[in-house]
Amino acid sequence: MAKREEILTSALAVIARNGYRRTSVRELADEVGLSQAGLLHYFSSKEELFQEILRKRDEVDRDAFDLEGTAPIDGLINVVRHNAEVPGLVQLYAQVSTEAGDPEHPAHEFFVERYRIFRESYSAAIRAEQDAGRIGSDIDPDLVASIVLAVTDGLQTQWMLDPSIDMAATIEHLWRLVAAAAPAD
Fold first, then answer.
1. d(Cα 19, Cα 1) in Å, to the nearest integer?
2. Which end of the chain has the lower number of beta carbons within 10 A, N or C?
């Protein structure tokens, strides 16, 4: 388990530095003193390796940005701001999430579960804002959570094509629109 964690932690740094497309499995193996076969011994496939790198990224972000202790929208904005500093990991996420649309892809269930957790978390956050009277009761929390997720992923794609796009500012603006869309009861 320790070697697997070392591989994932090193992979985060290498991909963040070099980019997803410019990082080979050989380079990841070299980084931790293994052969390619030795590295893949810890994972069932290259696809599982990349899925686990993304899972590790989520874990690191959750710890670094105290996602359990902050308002979910603030945590999301902080993570998105950080993502602009690690374009290789954004590229990896975009590539693997697209490939995982195929139900046969090894990361399919990872992304299904990841999106489910995200939607539930943001739906609950919106309900809490409604209960506190900061968001109108006619806002559908489940629908808005799905919209925030779609905007976040779509912004990452746009940002990869045009890095001048401020993803965090766009999400902050969307949240202000949601909060202002309907008067609190």
1. 26
2. N
Give start and end residues of each alpha helix (H) in 65-140. Answer: 72-83, 87-99, 108-131
Rg of the Cα atoms in the chain: 18
Q: Is the dihedral of CA 30, 34, 37, 41 positive or negative?
A: negative
pTM of structure? 0.85
Q: Is residue 34 part of a domain?
A: no
Q: What is the CATH number of the domain that holds 145?
A: 1.10.357
Separation of alpha carbons 137 and 125, rounded Å: 13
Question: How many domains does one find in the chain?
Answer: 1
**Tens digit of each residue's pLDDT (9 = 90 or more) over 41-50:** 898 888 888 8
75 in a structural domain: yes
| 101: helix, strand or coil | coil
Query: Is residue 111's pLDDT more than 70?
Result: yes
Condensed to tens digits (0 to 9), the pLDDT of residues 54-70 reads 999 998 888 777 656 66
